[in-house]
Amino acid sequence: MEKSFLQRGPVIILLALLCTILWGTAYPAVKIGYALFAIDAADGFGKLLFAGLRFTLAGLMTLAVSVVLQKRLVIPQRKHWGGIVQLGLVQTTGQYIFFYLGLANTTGVKGSILYALATFFVVIFAHFLFPDDKMTLQKILGCCIGFAGVLLITLEDGGLGGGFAWTGEGFIMLSTLSSALGSIISRRVTQGQDPVVITGYQLTGGGLVLILLGFFGHGQFGAMTAQGLLLLTYMAFLSAAAFTGWTMLLKYNPASKIAVYNFLIPIFGTTFSVMFLHESIFNLRSLLALGLACSGIYIVNKEFKQMKHE
Asked: Rounded to two decimals, what is the model's pTM?
């Protein structure tokens, strides 16, 4: 019954929308969290401590969901732990070191549009690593259009240096690279395993590494308020809910059928950044960049769907 329910069209649409909306809210939530916890702009380790608390809590929430679904706590076999540790270090620790530090030095709008790079990195890596997932003209077209959007949003009137900072946009790009590598690793690690269980352990482990980095780097919070703790709980929940919902959809449906919804994340990310951070996107450059990035993602994923039905 669960399998049949998660294969229904309306359920797929609603759950995929929920996941992408939740991920979209993360962009302004991180920046608001810095303010609520009074994390100094120069305190990189404080930002990592903040990230570590979020993902450790998210991992524990995900494992709790797994316990409810499985009616027991599933402990992976010893032979699978190496892959889980590798996934946690790349997809959680590595990705969010660069994401949290980079987002502190750029806008939520730019960060969400730069997210488009993750999809294109996956396409490129898959071409070299998986014989059944080679590059095609349609994928190349989608990548070129998407990269054009990314290039446009990082360029300003002053040229590349005017709109690009390695500790801002550069770190966000490295974050998307880690995300893409994590997706490749995940495809191997989750073979024959429950993706919800794997996600729970990798989030918890990756989050604990971030906490240790923040702690030994003497990161600190300037304030601890009820509002801040509520936001932290929400951010952990959004990660746990989005990753759990997404992996359940992928378990019972073709990946190509679900991947097409990725193009919504930059849309929701920019929308929520405008709403909660009062950032501006209503100019020709930003709107065109967003349109190109989303179009590129859609074209790449549409290719997957067509290949599936051939």
From this structure: 0.79
